[in-house]
Amino acid sequence: MITTETRPAHRAAVNRALPARLFLGAEKDPRWSRPALWAVLATAFVLYAWALSGNANTYYTAAIVSGTQSWKAFFFGALDAGSFITVDKPPLALWVMGLSARIFGYSTWSMLIPQAVAGVAAVGLVFSAVRRAFSGVRAGHAAALVAAVVMTLTPITVAINRDNNPDTILVLLLVLAAWFCLESLRTGRLRSLLLAALFVGLAFNAKMLQAYLVVPAFAVAYLACARVSRPKRVGHLLAAGAVLVVSSAWWMVIVDLWPAASRPYIGGSTDNSVWDLVIGYNGLGRIFGQGGAAGGAGGGAGFGGESGAGRLFNEIMAGQISWLLPFCVAALAFAVVMRLRRLGEGPSGAAWLVWGGWLVVHYVVFSFSSGTFHPYYATAMAPAVAALSGMGVVVMWQAYRRSRAWAWALPLAVAATGGWSFVVLRRTPDWAPWLAWVVLGATLVAVAVLVLARARAQITLRVAAIALAAAVIAGLAGPAAYAVTPLQSQVNGANPTAGPSTGGMGGFGRPGGMQGGQFPGRANGQRPPSGFTRGGPGGGVSDSMAKYLVANQGKATWLVAVSSAQQASSLILSTRKPVIAMGGFTGSDPAMTVDRLKELVSSGQLRYVMPGGGAGGGPGRGDPEVTSWVQENCAAVDGQDGLYDCTA
Q: Is residue 622's pLDDT more than 90?
């Protein structure tokens, strides 16, 4: 018993024990668990932070740099420091990287280290969430460790965590939400559920409606498993819904209520409102395609392959996320067949509902969306794949040990996983050709041992456990091999992926990928618009033109107005000057009108304009009325092809 006299000594003993507990875990934890976790987190940090120089999407980089020059641009997520137009996403992820750049000075490292740290934090949270879901201590730690390793080695997660796209922050916030949702189901505390809703709302401010894909799983799990009466469950969910709305909408409401004349145009919208961006370009446009047409702007089939049930298993996507999907399906099916309550020290039914629902909803939406779909979107599936893999290994091993009737489930799941890994690896037969056969051989041996160990008493369970460990290593060999490839070369910032080239569009090592700031038609043999070259300092504008613009900007707010953000962002980065992207990311946003252009020119805020040459290439992009007005009322600059001086 702790008394007043013994309390100081007890406190001192606790303080002395804290460092040991930090590195070795609690006394009841297996001695291997915490050191193993630290090793996984260190590995994750190396994978996410090694040789980051040059990795970035120049579109978001320009906005981050602009945010270090102007707090107004920072708040709105403007592409340029003059705040003419925003990027096509809400700014929360940019704020994280932008604050780091403001504190430490802008560099690739100051911008991307927060991304790497966020990725490592997500791995740790997945470990914690899976461990807490188990009633058995050793089983929980084993499942959690497998989940952490899977999360760390997911190839597309490695690629995106080395980039400045908002998906890394999105995943961290959603894993935080899942952690608190599971905690509310474990403890019965409403506060934890409200925090889960808060983090989903914050995730909305990183990537809008994609954040809501986890909400159905959380709601179903709470309705089915919460430790309160059914009427209270509904009331708690309504309260969480209110928190979700407020934490999601606060920035949107502020921006849409702000006078449009004194804020930047909302990039990606058709009417200069965040609401239109949420529902259109970043909402239904992703599901059905822009304007409701299949394929959408950017072409869903162009980056992630044709929509359909097999999209995540095609040549582009399979190596990024699909390695363990067969095992996850087997684990979910096994949990359903065993009716959850018979899983011994296995995870709670709530954990299966949260992570299983997360995976199923993402699979359906990502597979069948007709709008623009980049491979790196699939990183949002990684936490669910990791958790289900960890839980599945342990519960099927428990059933394997205790029941001959269910002993077949584990060997079958191992066989399916190893077989699929072999198929994926053989799609690139010239890349590490030996690896596919090693994986296949290890899988066959592991399956044979697992089957024989239950059929014959001469083979002990310890041997079977070794075979299972070999099967786990074989199942992770393919993802691990893909995961290290982004460390060996610069990642495509605009469309980051991992692994060898499979002939798909874009990504690491893939022909035809569009680097941020490049003219996308080059890969198809198209000629860049006039005035844009392959190697200028702006990633597009020639050396001579960039120097001319800087030398002659005078007191104008903006250096030049160009058609699209691909042109503007690279010029912003090379000159550190505000540049207007008249048509936003795609070159088709109606941000610039003739009246607005006249106002900017007459007030002295803008002198030079380069019309035409949007994201699709060629002078036909952008507002033809603006182009006509410039050509009729501005003077072509001698020696600078395609550039007009509107104050001449």
A: no
Q: Could you please report the per-residue DSSP string of 111-147?
A: HHHHHHHHHHHHHHHHHHHHHHHBSSHHHHHHHHHHH
Instruction: Measure CA 371 to chain center.
Output: 17
Residue 20: the pLDDT is 61
- Residue 310 has a CB neighbour count (10 Å cut-off) of 13
Q: Where are the domains of the chain?
A: 45-483, 529-645
The CA-atom distances, in angstroms, between 314 and each of 8, 129, 214, 318, 319 are 63, 31, 24, 5, 9
Give the pLDDT of residue 337: 87
Nearest residue to 541 via CA among 516, 511, 574, 515: 574
In tens, the pLDDT along 430-468 reads: 999 999 999 999 999 999 999 988 777 556 778 888 999
Residue partners of 532: CB distance under 8 A and separation at least 6: 519, 540, 541, 542, 567, 613, 642
In whole angstroms, give the CA distance from residue 213 to residue 207: 11
CA–CA dist 314, 32 (Å, integer):
38
Rounded to whole angstroms, how far apart are CA atoms 596 and 589? 14
Task: Report whether 328 contacts 392 (CB < 8 A).
Answer: yes
Task: Please name the residue that has the structure tokens 């080695």.
Answer: 153
Please, what's the b/e burial string for 623-640 (b: 16 or more CB within 10 A of its CB; e: otherwise)? beebbebbeeebeebeeb
The Cα 126–Cα 133 span in angstroms is 11
End-to-end Cα, the chain, rounded Å? 88
Contact 89, 206 (CB under 8 A): yes
According to the model, what pLDDT value does residue 459 have?
A: 64
Residue type, 46: V
From the DSSP assignment, how many helices (H) and strands (E) are in the chain?
26, 5
Q: Tens of pLDDT along 98-157?
A: 999 999 999 999 999 999 999 999 999 999 999 999 887 889 999 999 999 999 999 999
**For the packed helices 382-402 and 137-153, what is the interaxial angle rounded to 10 degrees?**
140
Residue 26 has pLDDT above 80, yes or no: no
Nearest to 62 by CA among 33, 28, 88: 88
| 351-382 confidence digits (pLDDT tens) | 999 999 999 999 999 999 998 899 999 999 99
> What mean pLDDT is predicted for residues 621-644?
89
Q: Scanning the structure block, which residue is given the tokens 């474990």?
A: 186
Look at residue 56 in the predicted model and tell me its pLDDT: 87
| Whether 613 contacts 642, CB under 8 Å | yes
Looking up tokens 């991304």, which residue turns up? 115
